[in-house]
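re the bet — no i am not wrong, look at it urself. input seq straight from the record:
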Amino acid sequence: MKEEKTQVADIDRSLYDFRYEEDERDYLGSGITADIIKEISDEKGDADWMREFRLKSMEIYNKTPMVEWGPSIEGLDIDNIVTYIRTKSRMNTDWNDVPDDIKNTFEKLGIPQAERESLAGVGAQYDSELVYHNVRKEVAESGVVYTDLESAMHDERYAEMIRTHFMKLVPPTDHKFAALHGAVWSGGSFVYVPKGVRLEIPLQSYFRLNAKGAGQFEHTLIILEEDSYLHFIEGCSAPKYYEAGLHAGCVELYVGKNATLRYSTIENWSKNMYNLNTKRALVDEGGKIEWVSGSFGSHVSHLYPMSILNGRGARAEFTGITFAGEGQNLDTGAKIVHNAPDTSSYMNTKSISKSGGISTFRSAVTVNEKAAGSKSAVSCESLMLDRISRSDTIPVMDIRTDKADVGHEAKIGRISDETVFYLMSRGLSEEEAKAMIVRGFADNVSKELPLEYAVEMNNLIGLEMKGSIG
């Protein structure tokens, strides 16, 4: 008879926790120094402006104080984080040319299969560099550009476009980890969608950090022209180590007039990771940004995608779900800035905490003087599965015009013993009853996730509930 799992520690995370041994001779060194940054620039053949940008970002990093609010990151020592790992492979457009160990990693994660079945293009990053990027022929023929950011920077067709957009939405002065990113960034994707092109099949990038004691600092830059549409999916994972790891990527999204961008992210880092990612979108007149965010991993997360609504009638929607288990402190949410008339925003989030996990939702809504006629609604619900877990809601609203409609609703509670008892009386076990309650709680958010990730989340809930008994 198959043995039942009785503790969270028994949960099979082999899908993510497998790893390959790294050759530490490929590490440039730990921490952030001028020599390391110059060596990164040499590895990449950076243009002069990028070399200067990196060194200036390092200066800003050294002058900027460490973050002192939110979950503690005292267990993260940047001096011990490897900021760059030399690539094992050049960037390939043919899957057969990718080295076997890297290929096997992404095969196990299902990326090539997803590309074949349901994606218009795929990018795969392993440690510090993109190792594979491909886009369907018909997509490329429509004028859509989807490639790794570094190749695009060296392409005269896109170099100036990237220079005028790179780290303009998230400048190095924004916070300490934005400055760190500006200094050591590596890898990431570049997407350009021309005017009037609607890409109905998603693009996906997957970021895999294999090395221990390392950081990943990819940069994603997406530019949508007028009347275009794109759904971009981002997935992340790493095996578990006892050393702290760091993810400090950056996402910059430019949504043109009457364009729509749906940006779906599934963060499934291991529980030794510090996830300090920064994401920001600028939305023009009549444009729309749709964020869909699932945060299931990492030891500590600080993650608050920002939408800047700069044109009349611009819209933003944020849909998020967070699952914090034992040893996790996930501080997530979103920021919206209304800078123009008749703009609108809506946040809908669910958070679940168990086994001492801590889940915090932060929202920041700013409606400026010129944003008359704007509307914003924030709805957040939190569910604690036991008495040792914690959930907090911290909403902030800064309204500078009388002609705005802004509201906030929050609900925090625990699983009802009566509900569990009722379901058990109908023939379900205790863990099955709890899993059903949690799935029902998360349903209207999880259905917004890409299908394969919604299935994955439901499987995770089932395993966590089974792991919580005994």
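see?? The chain has a mean pLDDT of 81. told u. also The radius of gyration is 22 Å. so pay up
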